[in-house]
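Case study 2.
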Amino acid sequence: MNVFKRPISLIIVCFWFCFWLLNALDKVLARQDIGSFHWWGNHRIEKFSMYFERLSIDIAHVFPTLVFAGLVELAVALPFFFAAIKLAQGKQGAARLADKAIGLSLLVFIGFTVFDIIVGDRAELLEHSTYIGVLLVSFLAVTAETFLDHLHRLGKEKEG
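Prediction:
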């Protein structure tokens, strides 16, 4: 099978895998020197401390909350990873797996937007809402490429 049979879908799932993996790592590595380089990232401990103070939640819960969020993001990255492998191998079911991963991503971002509204962070709300839009476009692109691939296969079957 041709590895580049569905390049747009492969690029999309690889992008979202990297996005979620790096975002998960950023939850625990931000602003740390990790040997060969310094991970700058977003200083979420500072932000979440402010959020928790607004909500009258003990700031001792900030780091465990960030670790939990990072684990959720890592869990969302995995279906994108497996979809990328299936796409690269030309196996069936890659689009369905990508759709599920996009759906999980949408749920996570909806949760993030609810949190943004509760803590009053409009900049984060705008950012997370933008990601929801990009995920919807990603879904449409994967769906369109899958549909066009299906039409191409039908045309070849009629020829043969």
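The CA atoms of residues 48 and 62 lie 6 Å apart.
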